[in-house]
Amino acid sequence: MVPDALAGTPYGTAFILCVAIAAACWVLSLVTKEFSWVDRVWSLAPPAYCLIVAAEQGFASARVNIMTVLVLMWSVRLTANFAVKGGYQPGGEDYRWAYMRGKLSKLQFQLLNVTFICPGQMAIILLFTAPIHQAWLHSDQRLGWLDYLAIVVFLVLLGGETVADAQMLRFQKNKQRQRDAGLEVEKPFMDGGLFRFSRHPNYFCEMGMWVVFYLFAISASGRVVHWTGLGCLLLIALFQGSIRLTEEISSGKYPGYSDYQAAVPRLVPIPLRRLLPN
Known about the structure:
Strand content: under 5%
Helix content: over 70%
Oligomer: single chain
Radius of gyration: 20 Å
Number of helices: 12
Shape: globular
Order of helices and strands: HHHHHHHHHHHH
């Protein structure tokens, strides 16, 4: 069951855990009729995979330990944010799955569930954590300048995502207070704070963190191209589809959203866009 390249390695153990989690999420989705079970383990699986790798070496590798700590920090923040939004509560299913169920037949959606929602997404999670396997293979290599750069950029992006999510949460709570008070909602969608520069600054930071995470694998192995870089590319592709679906829903709900789309870039923040060549 474990690929030959991972047989006998701690990441092979992580692979087995990934398959077990995917199967459990699929069964739970059938029993509960909710399809956000992968969303609920999204922030929990990567630190588990990293801890498996770090523990196998007795936490003796500086690079593997640093990667594990960074992923733990990411996990704590994302888990707390998901919990505050009610994601772990019964009925806390992501609204986009309900939207997709309305677009597809029952058979089509169940096919999506058994192929992409559970195993597909869990495979992506395993893969974007995979650079730690490359770091484990080359654990004798000392830390270099690329590792230190990765640490700094990862933390900056983690801070940016934290601010963006906090701003969105505050906006949504204020919006709900207005509704509860019977008042007209002044702004139906978020366009302030970091959202003035990017329509999805949290997604931009999230994708950036896992691209940066791959830099540790490059530093450890001395190779720029390796299969453990596939995960961050698949994550970027996944987010493109998620953003497209989110904006399709928002455009249908909010008449002024198209103006916001025309004025603000989808991902790369405006200040950074100005630094990029035309």
